Amino acid sequence: MKIPITYKDAGVDIEAADRLVDFIRPLAKTTFRAEVLTEIGSFGGVVQLDRERFPDPLLVASTDGVGTKLRIAFAMNRHDTVGIDLVAMSVNDVLVQGAEPLFFLDYFATGRLDLDTAKQVVQGIADGCRIAGCALIGGETAEMPSSYPDGEYDLAGFCVGIVNRDRVVDGQGIRPGDAVLGVASSGLHSNGYSLVRRIFSPERGFNLREPLPGMSTPLGEELLRPTRIYVRSILKALRQFPVKGLAHITGGGLLENVPRILPADCAAWLRPSAWPLPRIFQEIRREANLDLAEMLRTFNCGIGMVIVVEPASAEDLRDLLNAEGEDCYRVGEIVPRGADAAPCRFESNTSVMP
């Protein structure tokens, strides 16, 4: 007689997945908005649109992951912050269209489901959703034996936001003379980690559990600082000021992301001397011997969100954001773009960004 081979024998523990759902259900409910009509565990999440607030609604969608920052989490065996990163990368992206994040879904894939690790990750996702005012309405936990090494997983996130048609921020009104503001990042956010891991590798004498010289936080903890979520402060700014453009500074740094919102006849002129370069970026630049252009093309360099606004509104907008707990700087201006000129240029004297 053949011995039965169960799904669990093949490496998939349905009971563990059920226990994870039981953990997620009340956690997700703490993120729900009035628009959510279904509970976690349905085949799909149902959300109604508030037609009083958004009489001519447009939906804005984004998806993203955390990238190789996860490898820092694996090495540190700390998983409570990468969920915040996952939410941040998508909600900040829909935000730059002027949209309010409405709901979020996650995808968690692993070779063998470790409940404690998964709970830490989902707790971070719920924390990020609460910070963003975004409902966690569902997701997928995929246990795929032999697809991932033990103790490792991958994440993807999906966000849908809503904005009224007349409030869309698309950059089309940007003109030479407009002011460029920068809102501080919390650190590296979730980009550039393939390079960072190479720079701070054990082969080069670095230990994630020890601080860099002159720093008090262990390197691994510094690299795991979660991506800042700008939703509440930027939405307040959008309600009070005629913001012309917003850029979320992710992969490609300032030099690649700011041009994405500019009309073809405009360029951005940035002054890196106008904001402080956080210590972690100073150490990256020193250890890798990177020039300023490469830093600005790879990392956010301390600026996680860029705002373009008319000069007359710049100081008041900066004051509002500072009052909301952000660190905001006037980092440049919009200039005419010549036929062969780069869409984002910067002050490059040797005294900036030490």
How would you spell out the order of helices and strands? HEHHEHEEEHHHEHEHHEHEE
Alpha plus pi helix count: 11
Q: Overall mean pLDDT score? A: 94
Residue windows where pLDDT falls under 50 for at least 5 positions: none
CATH topology of the largest domain: Phosphoribosyl-aminoimidazole Synthetase, Chain A, domain 2
Structural class by SSE content: alpha+beta
* Main β-sheet, spatial strand arrangement: 6-8-5-9-7-10
Any idea of the CATH class of the largest domain? Alpha Beta
Q: Any idea what the shape is?
A: globular
By DSSP, the count of extended strands is: 10
Work out the radius of gyration: 22 Å
Write out the CATH superfamily name of the largest domain.
Answer: PurM-like C-terminal domain
The total tally of domains equals 2
Main sheet properties: 6 strands, mixed
Helix content: 25-40%
What is the distance, rounded to the nearest whole angstrom, between the alpha carbons of the first and last residues?
Answer: 74 Å
Strand content: 15-25%
- In the CATH hierarchy, the architecture of the largest domain is Alpha-Beta Complex
